[in-house]
Amino acid sequence: MLTQTVHIEKHLIPILESVSDPEIPVLSVLDLGVIREAFEENGVVKIKLTPTYSGCPAMDVISDDLKKAFSEIGKEIEVELVLAPAWSTDWISEKGLQKMEAYGIARPLSETHDKDVLLGDKKLVKCPQCASTNTHLVSQFGSTACKALFKCDDCLEPFDYFKCLK
Amino acid sequence: MNSTKNDNNSLPMGEMSGGQRGNLYNYILGIADNSLILAQRLGELCGHGPNLETDIALTNISLDLLGQTRSYYQYAAKVEGAGKSEDDIAFLRLEREYKNILLVEQPNTHFGYVMARQFLFDIYHLMMMKELQKSKDETLRAVANKGIKEVSYHKRFSSDWIKRLGDGTEESHGKMQEAIDDLWRYTNEMFQMTAADTEMAEAGIGVDVSKFKEAYYKEVSEVLKEATLTVPESKYFAKGGKEGIHTEHMGYILADLQYMQKTFPNMTW
């Protein structure tokens, strides 16, 4: 388990919460854990953003959305993309995981269980529609780099599973 | 997480001589160009995969590689210090200036061929990334730490397909064997060291790729055997990519890749 202290100034939180992940709009950038630092210095808001995956196209959009959100309240902002430490699914908040499930995406399992379902045939991923674990992997790669495609064998609905990344 | 204990030994860019910076620049391109050209090749398959899931997988892999490429190029631009952008490096070089190995530029002949190319690269790529995680260079280390999870996933995917197709029907077996036999000649080049490779490896920044040649062939052979395929014995190997001497396919890739910049110079999205 990676513990990370993240320096985010309290008064910036409401605005950061208003900026969402373009791929999973129910999640704010704070829920997703991609904001590594956010503070105000000499009237300029400085934000450090980290990508979920190297090629995540959402990063450019998030960066633009942050600029827009802060410029609307008359604040100047600098966004810096940082690679280290590498993002982990542990950084998604519990609130975020719940929102994700309600949205229809299964939450990441632990690292060992993640391997069991992606490599083996173990049935551990819970269907976000009917909560059955009678599910199977359809494809290791899903609609975005961070997800895999599953199907529920009880309610027969296909769904995305957010892969564990540590 | 990698600790930062190596930082005391690292060579800050400001203290590097012009020659060292040049070698670091070339070294970064050597790694990055492999990812760019393979990403481009896989990107060509967007909408043409054998089925929807595989199509998405191939473009996902392409995107991972492209993301890594961007991080490398952004850093290379900074190292060079000539005011270039990542796009300049990606789009505005001549064929001879691209340092990618010949393997990654080979065409998408058929799905088995695409998987064979991917597999032969992934095994190497993961070994290289593991070593790069130990680099004294903070940025390269960060890119490797970030990318290694993606690359292990690619390797898993391509190895699975080698086994499925190799140990599949008579036809899939035959096609896969043919692809492996054909691409085998491009494997040895991975382990050749350029001048930049040698200097950067000695400085603890780069990876001495010549060191894991044996481990590479051992791992590849194990998967091939499991896939009921024959490990090629040919001793003829092609080289040149690392020095900018490419196969005839490279020009066509660049014609596509550079089209927009050549047609509308300095265009941006």
TrEMBL record, chain A:
User: What InterPro entries has UniProt attached to this entry?
Assistant: Fe-S_Maturation_MIP18 (IPR052339), FSCA_dom_sf (IPR034904), MIP18-like (IPR002744), PaaD-like (IPR011883), Zn_ribbon_PaaD (IPR056572)
What the entry lists under Gene3D superfamilies is as follows: Fe-S cluster assembly (FSCA)
Quote the PANTHER family the UniProt record gives: 1,2-PHENYLACETYL-COA EPOXIDASE, SUBUNIT D-RELATED, FE-S PROTEIN MATURATION AUXILIARY FACTOR YITW
Kindly provide the name given to this protein in its UniProt entry.
Ring-1,2-phenylacetyl-CoA epoxidase subunit PaaD
* Superkingdom field: Bacteria
Outline the extent of the PaaD zinc beta ribbon domain: 113-163
Q: Name one Pfam family in it.
A: FeS_assembly_P
Domain MIP18 family-like: from-to ranges: 16-80
Automatic annotation (TrEMBL), chain B:
The record's annotation in InterPro entries points to: Aromatic_CoA_ox/epox, Ferritin-like, Ferritin-like_SF, PaaA_PaaC, PaaC
Which Gene3D superfamilies does the record cross-reference, listed alphabetically?
A: 1.20.1260.10
Q: Which GO terms describe its cellular component?
A: cytosol
Q: Where are the transmembrane segments?
A: none
Cross-referenced SUPFAM superfamilies, in alphabetical order?
A: Ferritin-like
Q: Which GO terms describe its biological process?
A: phenylacetate catabolic process
Q: Supply the PANTHER family for this chain.
A: 1,2-PHENYLACETYL-COA EPOXIDASE, SUBUNIT C, PHENYLACETIC ACID DEGRADATION PROTEIN PAA
Q: What is this protein called?
A: Ring-1,2-phenylacetyl-CoA epoxidase subunit PaaC
According to its UniProt entry, this protein's organism is: Ulvibacter antarcticus
